[in-house]
Amino acid sequence: MFKKAVFFILLLSNVPVFSQVGGRSVYQFLNLMTSPRQAAMGGKVITIYDHDVNQPLFNPATINVDMDNHLAVNYGNYFGEISYGTAAYAYTWDRRVQTFHAGVNYINYGTFEGRDENGLLTSDFTGSEMALSFGYAYNIPWTDIYLGSNLKLITSTLESYSSFGAALDIGAIYIDEDNDINIALSIRNIGTQITTYAGTRENLPFEIIAGISQEMEHVPIRWHLTLENLQQWNVAFTNPVYNEESLDGTVKEDKPSFVNNALRHVIIGAELFPQKSFNIRLGYNFRRGQELKMEEQRTFAGISAGVGLKMGKLRFDYSYSRFTLAGNTSLFGVMINLQ
What we know:
Blueprint: H1 2-13, H2 36-40, E1 70-77, E2 83-94, E3 98-112, E4 125-139, E5 145-158, E6 161-176, E7 181-195, E8 207-215, E9 221-227, E10 244-245, E11 251-252, H3 258-263, E12 266-272, E13 278-285, H4 286-291, E14 303-311, E15 314-322, E16 328-337
């Protein structure tokens, strides 16, 4: 069964698609971290299969009955006046029909100072975006493979321009209970703009993510390995800061190596005491660390950490993610079991 699951994931991960990373598609907020637990382990973790009702926002295949009647709300400050939040809820209709999931992602970009083409003040304006998602997962009979999908309706308003779109997430996860190993794949943001901002149709931030995690047998740790942006191999770029100029004036252009580019697809994370009421979480995002590092100063970009605390039917989570010396993010979350 393990070999079948690996073959299944490799087959899906070779779907012929093309995309860009960062800044070349609309609705980029869809790729923001959706919960403190996920953020603390580097982001984009898709292999968590338990009570965490936030998890299906990144991999709908993780929807399960343990999430029944759980409600989660998360909030964080991003950079400057930008704030964003998520909410999620799951309900089990019955053991045969399984569990339905609903979620919302929201971001507010704050207030901007409006000016005309001559630089003269006009009026302030704002910007915000939101996505509503509805998900369902299905267990393939007589297997340990689960499939799921999310349908997302997206709305965006930036100054006087607005757009509406729709997207689909497709996920799969294989649960090896004997070895406590989870293997997952998520194909996210397959969709289109239904109405555009100004007549030009733009791409959605399509992405393919794969992951594996395992809870150690004799150590209270579950480690996570995530491979992001599998739809595009080359995610590195030339940074002119690292160009080398020789004595004769010729410039040797910085070119990231094969290994450097490969590592930019990798996110690693770990959760200590995953079955206890108190958890400690750590993570490192290689691409974030490479893109935000400074030439002569250590910034620790890419590092993230967090904690989780369960008190009765309440769970509290916090995460801190390092970006730059001037800008870092904290996420706060609460989950309640309404049963």
